[in-house]
Structures are given as structure tokens and as C-alpha cells.
Amino acid sequence: MRLYSSSPSPFGRKVKITAHLTGLYDQLEVVTIDGNDPESAQINPNPLNKIPTLALESGELIVDSKVICEYLIQASGRTEMLPEDHRIDYLSRAAIADGITEAALLMVYERRFREPSQINADWLHRQNQKVLGGLKWWTENITSVQSTPTLDQIGLAVSLGYLDFRFSGEWRTRFTDLALWLTQFQQMVPAYQLTDPQA
Ligand SMILES: N[C@@H](CCC(=O)N[C@@H](CS)C(=O)NCC(=O)O)C(=O)O
Q1: Crossing angle for the helix pair 10-21 and 87-113, nearest 10 degrees?
Q2: Pocket lining: 166 vs ligand 1, CB cutoff 6 Å
Q3: Phi, psi (degrees; rounded to nearest 5) at 67
């Protein structure tokens, strides 16, 4: 299987952690895509030129980190990572975690792709409110970390890691319970360190 991704990509990191936990990481050939390089569209088989994207040996393309993670979980039989009896609940929780990452990513893009004079402060504020709303929700709905985390927990760890990476961990002083939770996650899930974009 070929995984198109990049080291800083939080959604790519989510897939890589899931691949480690499902025992499928060794079957992945990781192809690095540089999102800032216009040539990347030539290499990336995803018509949206987004990462992560997974290409199977059969030629089938799997697009979007949620779908790729679910594929890896199904293919490995590690269904405890997305329990069937509460599947919708877990997917919903995972979507809130991903929503934090998406909002943070949009803030990064706003600063990356616009001239300083064009940066829209209202837009940044709006995205930041989503990040804060998501973090507040998770503080109230956190679940304890197991050595094999569920997909929503992987998504949360990745979103917090992305806030550490791109926003200097400013969230930590306000969301101390989540900071403690992330420390536990780091200790119990070695794949988190293995995929650290700053390592
Ligand atoms: N919902 C998608 C989001 C993927 C996404 O936005 N990836 C970013 C990198 S982390 C990307 O490809 N950005 C380039 C672009 O949007 O053009 C997923 O979960 O895979």
C-alpha cells in the first residue's frame, strides 16, 4: 500500500498512528507530498490534491483520513479501535477531534497563503472559537487512555499535537486536564512519539 502524506500533516499523522496500532505500518510505502510545491499535484493521485491518500495494490484509492483509518481497522480486525455497537458515537467524537484540527489548519493556511495585509482577523477568530469549543467539549467528555486507543482518542491526540506544533502549546495553560491526558496518551502509545513532526 502506498500512503501519500507529509511529516507535518496532522491527518497524515492520524493515519500513521492507526497503521502502527493495527500492525500494518510495515506494509505502507510512504510517499512524501509537499503541499507547498505545485508539482505535488502531479504525484498525488487524490484528485483534490489533499493528503493523506492511500493507494492499494489493486489500484483502489482511499481518500480522507477517517476513511483510511477505518479501512486499516477493518483490514487488521482491530475492531476494538472503532467498536461496532457504538460506532456512530465514536465517529461523532472523532469528528469533533478532527474539527479542532481542521480549524487550526485553516488558521495556519490563512497566515500562509495570504499577504499580511489580507489576513482576516474575524476569520481567524471564528476558527479559534471552534478550536476552543472543541477543547472545552473534550474536557467534559474525555475518556481514559487504553494501550490500544479508540479512533476518537487518536484524533484528539493528533489535534493537541498539532496545536503544540503550530501554536506553541498555548492551549495547555487553559486545558490542563487535556494536557495531563496527552501525557498519558504519549506514555501508553509509542506511535505518538514515532510520528512526532518535530522529532
Ligand atoms: N478531511 C481530510 C482533510 C485533509 C487535509 O485537509 N489535509 C491537508 C494537509 S494536513 C491538505 O491536504 N491540505 C492541502 C489543501 O487543502 O490543499 C482528511 O481527514 O483527510
Answers
A1: 140
A2: no
A3: -70, -40
* Phi then psi dihedrals of residue 150, to 5 deg: -85, 165
Given this model, what pLDDT does residue 159 score? 98
Residue 36, pLDDT score:
83
Nearest CA, atom 17, ligand 1: 50
- Confirm or reject: Cβ of 197 under 6 Å from ligand 1: no
Distance CA 110, CA 89 (A): 32
Out of 3.40.30.10, 3.40.50.300, 3.40.50.720, 3.40.640.10, which CATH number does the structure's domain 2-80 have? 3.40.30.10
C-beta 45 within 6 A of ligand 1: no
Q: How confident is the chain (199 residues) per 10-residue block, as mean pLDDT?
A: 98 98 98 90 94 97 98 98 97 98 98 96 98 98 94 98 97 98 97 95
- Return the C-alpha torsion angle 174, 178, 180, 181, nearest 10: 180
Q: What is the pTM of this model?
A: 0.97
In 10 A of CB 178, how many CB atoms? 22
Domain with CATH 1.20.1050.10 in the chain: 82-190
Looking at residue 182, what is its pLDDT?
Answer: 98
CA of 11 to the centre of ligand 1 (A): 7
